[in-house]
Structures are given as C-alpha cells and as structure tokens.
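User: For my dataset I need records formatted as: sequence, then structure tokens, nothing else. Please produce one.
Assistant:
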Amino acid sequence: MASVFMPIPALLLANLKFLFGWYAIAWILTLIDVEFWHKPPGKGLPVSEAWSFSGLIGIFLAPFIHVNWRHLKGNTIPFFVLGGLVLLRQPIDFIVITIVIALVSGILGWFLGGIAGFTPQGWLINARSTGMSDLIFGYAGFLLALFYFDRTIASAIALGLTILLFGNRLWLMLPGKIVRRMRIAWDAHLIGFIVGAFVAAYLPSLRPVSIALLQALSVPTQFPGIMIAGTVIDERFYRQTLPPLIARYVPPLLSRLRILFQLVAAAWIIAFVDFQILRGALRFNLGIRPWTLRGLIGIPLAPFLHGNWNHISGNTLGFLIFGGLLVLVKPNDFVLISIAIALISGALIWFSAFPVRFGYVGASAVIFGYIGFLLSLFYFENNLTASLLLGGTLLLIILFDRIWLGVRFREMILLRKRSLIKGILPKTFDNSWAHFLGFIAGVIVAGYLPDLRSYAAYLASLFNLSR
C-alpha cells in the first residue's frame, strides 16, 4: 500500500528560504549599521528618507535596517507569524506579495513624506522610516482583507488567526500620544496595512507575475500539497469555497453583526474628530461628571468617547467579542440591551463615582455590562442556551486575558495583573469602579429583560416606531 505521506514540495521550501533569507539579511545589515557604523539611522546605511536620492536606495534597504537590536527583536515574532500565515495560505504568491508590499509602501512613504513632512502633533507623515514594520502590517492588512475578496476556508482561518495573534498591535498604526512618545512610525504601519489590503484585492492579477517570477528563479510552480500531522492537505483545500452549510448561515450572521460594526465605526470616527481636530474637547466636555448637570449629558454619549487611541483600540476588541456573542444569541434585543446597560451604568456612575478631571468616558462600562448580562442570564432563564453562554463567556474571558493581555493562569487566579477578571472587581472610585457598575447594570438588565421588552414595545407604539 502506498504511503500517504508526502514531502514538503519545492515551492514551499523555496518560500521558507525566502522568509528566513529576508530575516538573515535584516540581521546582517543591522549588525553592520549598529555595531560597525555606530551611527543613527540615516547616517549609516541608506534608509527610506523622503525626497532624497539616498532615500531611493533606502526604499530597498529600509525593510532590512533597524534602529537597534531591540527594534529587530520586536519585529521578529510578528514577521514570522504573519509571514508564515501568508506563506501557508497560498505559497505560490508569497514572494510577490512580500516584494509588492515592501516596495509600494516604501515608495509611498518616500513620496508622501516629502509632501507632508512631520509635526509634533503626529498629524502628518514621517520623513524617514526603517525596519520590517511596514511589511508586517502589510501582511496583517493582506490577511484581514483577503476574506472579503476570497471567501475561502484558508482565508477565513487566516482572518481569525491574524486577529487572535496580532490584533493587539493594530493600534500602533494610529497617531496616539503613546505612539508618538515611543517614536513609533505609525504612518509606515498604516501605509503598509493599506497596501496589504490592496494586494489582497488585486491578488488574481498578481498571480501570473508570481508564476513568472518563480519560473525565472527555476522554482517549481506546482503545489501538490503539504503534510500536516500526517495528513496531506492538497492545493484544492486552499481554493475551496466555504462549505454550503457555512455559506447558508454566514450572510445572516453578518447581517446581525452589522449593527456592531456600525457602532464601532461611529466611535472611531468620533475619536478621530476628537483627537486630531478638536484636541480632546469632546471627551473633556461630554464625559460623565458625577453630580453635575453637564455630566447628565455624558450618560448616553460617554460610550462613544475615549481618552486616546490606545483606549479605544483596547475597548474595540472587547466590544466586538462580547457584543458579538450577545448579538448572535439575542439579535432582536441587542439594541435594547445595549441602550439599557449604557443608561443604567451611566446613571450609577453619575450617582456614585468619584469626580475626575476629564469625566468618565469609554465603552468599558458597556463591555462589562455585556459580560454581566451573559454570565447572569443562566440564573434568570436557566435553559440550554443560557448554560452555553455562561461557559462560552467564561472561556472568552480567560482567552482574552491570556492571549490579548498576556496574563498567566496563576496571575489570573491570584488577581496580580490587570485583566478582565480583575477589572470587574471594584478597587477604588476610578475606572475599575465604572467597570463594576457596568457589570451590575448588565445583571440588572438580564433580570428585567422581559419588562424592558414591554416598555420598549409601549414606547414604540406610543411614538409610532413599530413601522
């Protein structure tokens, strides 16, 4: 009987060599620049400096040159993780995807940096950039956008893994105060991300270029399959569309999740206006200020306002995870539950929280309200769905703390580090107190959901909203 085990094909091996070769060149050039030249970036080997002749050479060298060893080390794991996902998704395209992202993002950075320049406010484009960051964020943009254009099993898996493994770094492509203080080239990240998304959109046009390039390098372009855990996964898997069962239920699920993405988009648009145009005027004036008339205005508005880019980035994932779980199981009640949690938690914060300078802002109270609702629903409904929600929510909390926040299980249990579990418990009259009040609001809404439905139906009929 013939063995089902197949060796790794030459195509995959060639791409692996390309992946490791890229990093080896980065290591060698960084060694030369840091240890032998002993000069800051741009004074040694050429980097991508806008509107300069050496910058044109730097377009090709900048993805390999890093400021220091810490810079290179920080890029290493994301490069291999995301590059590996691109490689395994469709090995025949990997080399061209990498080259296009690196060159196009370098050219755009060189061109836009000369036009826009740089200001301390972080509005505009840096005139100089180095490192593999734009390529890494290009991989992320490619993997996140690919599912929209491709709709295959492989792209769906890549989408989930990218969010899980890299989602907590996406805020590094936004011009927040922390990013500027750390001197991170957020614009190079953003340009790389956008270029990666465009590459995903035009991948079918790039595929003939991939084949031509690989044939010119004498690399076989046939991809019969790779062996994973003793099982051959052939090329057809990567091109297979979603199974009929998934294709049948995905559109309704996306329809349910639309409201969630609309709320997130509204929060991000408001954040951009507040941070980049109004200089924080919205969060300063429209937050929840306890025991003030102006603070009452903040009760319905606070969930859409945030302190900085890091704040809204952290809240976005929690909102999508726990809000997404809620909207999937309670699609008809999601808006009602969200409004009730926001108003009740806001009123509790206004009534009992300690006054702070900027007022209480952010969607944290609503997120913890979702958690409180999902965990307590079992007590009030006591059915199979509520039981599964209880277990699923606890699992998501643990995974969020472990993967996103990097909290170990021992630290989770002993409440030694910042985590969702620790965030529920009130410590002082600060943000954790708002989290606790949001959790309580979620429990209250779960207990009185039938009554809230009746009130909502009455108000709808009163204002003729049922139509």
